[in-house]
Amino acid sequence: MSRRLAGLAAFMRELSLSLDGFSNRILTQKTIYLCQVVGVDLGYRYNWYLKGPYSPALTSDAFELKDITQFQNVRLKDHVRGKIQVVNDLLAKHHNYDLEKADWSELLVSLHYLRHISPQPVKKTKDEVINALCECKNYFTSDQAACAWDELNQMGLIENIEVSIN
Fold it and tell me: Residue 73 sits in which domain range?
């Protein structure tokens, strides 16, 4: 098995991610995206899709991992675990905004993607990104998007950074 699959298996195990059901698949996509944003590059590149940023390669690899227990001996380094904890802490805030975890992750990652990655002519101010997001994802309110923006910004993940994960 490839090193990338072994790494993905370790992340999925550490983050308790699964592909059972659509919400879990969304959460897996968005959680791995966030892990890469905080500095753990697993090599997945994203493009825009129905539920925001999506990596076909990640989906393919994750489904190839039918049994992540085959990688039980793969361990993550402490500094990587620290970055995972940052992502877990951010995702746990979904309760504060009355959103399901998969929806919260979609909101966070979509804002980040539109601000930093999108090749579309999206303006880059907070209000412009939020308006663009709410136009294509009308099930999120501008208040929810503003709160998600602020959470990302408090972590240094939205303003004044240079990112390349596409």
Answer: 3-154
